[in-house]
Amino acid sequence: PDGWVAVTQTNVVLISKRGTVRRVATLPETYATPISVAVGPIGDIAIGRRFFVSVLRRQGDSYQEEWFIPPACQRFEDGPFLCECRGGA
Fold it and tell me: What is the pTM of this model?
């Protein structure tokens, strides 16, 4: 409530109204293009990405990342123009 969340392809930072910047997560670059972001009432941060959603669960002053990936998209492969989802097998 006292600042902003900024998400890049590799980092999530909190920016206070006073201008203090604090990195709360370093994200893997693999297919992690952020498309949207939402902050929940207790401070969890959901990041919509190209093929999945990741959630940074707030745990005190730190965050733990979880990925929500469709069952048919358990691994990624580079295609000719973009990466593609592949089944888990």
Answer: 0.75
